[in-house]
Inverse folding.
């Protein structure tokens, strides 16, 4: 055990990773989104892509487990099942691409996906049509590829699953349930490939501590009267994370 802990403390950029996941927790606490958008671009500076994906998905499983009971009762589980099954098929493709693409290329993909997502959020873009069954399959499939390749499991759902005809409560519950399922699918695939070892588990556990604490802080700081300020603060943090994670700096 001491050797395992020593290896975790020897993780490159551990202090920065803890600071980043802590900030991501605050952002998630008062906005409800943004963990991966903040953490993944910065983590890519210090960690290999498969480690980034493993850590963020394991942390995601831990963080969403507390939200699942309520979401399970409010979600349209049939819709989520379609999304999850589509992602189940395409996650291996994302992981296959991750294993073959150059880490710098993956960092550019992360930066582009995060920047496009941020731009759409800032612009207030939302899909306003009806989400049909084929569209659900496409959403799940694309989310599976991007999630497996980069660890960014949320952007596709954030941009395309928030249909105007759906109640906000249902959309939130569906999103929580789907992202939890996607994290489990990615971790299961990584385990089958032997790409997740005890070092990644311990690193995820170490990062989960500040993330959990700061998520509670962010939640306690939230005041609906100042939601616009919180969201713009979150957008600024995400933009800073994307810029700092660009491969041009290292």
């Amino acid at each position: 055990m001491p050797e395992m802990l020593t290896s975790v403390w020897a993780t490159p950029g551990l202090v920065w990773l803890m600071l980043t996941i802590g900030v991501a927790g605050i952002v998630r606490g008062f906005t409800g989104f943004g963990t991966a958008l903040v953490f993944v671009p910065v983590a890519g500076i210090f960690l290999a892509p498969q480690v980034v994906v493993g850590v963020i998905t394991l942390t995601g499983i831990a963080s969403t487990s507390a939200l699942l009971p309520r979401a399970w009762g409010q979600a349209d589980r049939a819709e989520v099942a379609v999304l999850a099954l589509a992602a189940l098929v395409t996650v291996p493709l994302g992981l296959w691409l991750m294993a073959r693409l150059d880490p710098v290329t993956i960092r550019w993909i992360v930066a582009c996906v995060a920047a496009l997502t941020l731009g759409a959020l800032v612009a207030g873009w939302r899909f306003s049509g009806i989400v049909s069954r084929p569209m659900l399959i496409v959403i799940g499939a694309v989310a599976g590829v991007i999630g497996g390749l980069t660890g960014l499991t949320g952007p596709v759902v954030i941009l395309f699953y928030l249909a105007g005809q759906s109640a906000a409560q249902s959309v939130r519950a569906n999103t929580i349930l789907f992202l939890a399922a996607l994290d489990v699918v990615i971790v299961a695939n990584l385990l089958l490939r032997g790409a997740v070892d005890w070092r990644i588990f311990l690193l995820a556990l170490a990062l989960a501590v500040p993330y959990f604490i700061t998520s509670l802080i962010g939640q306690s700081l939230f005041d609906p009267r100042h939601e616009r300020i919180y969201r713009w603060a979150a957008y600024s943090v995400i933009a800073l994370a994307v810029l700092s994670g660009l491969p041009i700096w290292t």
Remarks:
- The chain has one domain: 2-249.
- Residues 94 and 146 are 6 Å apart (CA to CA).
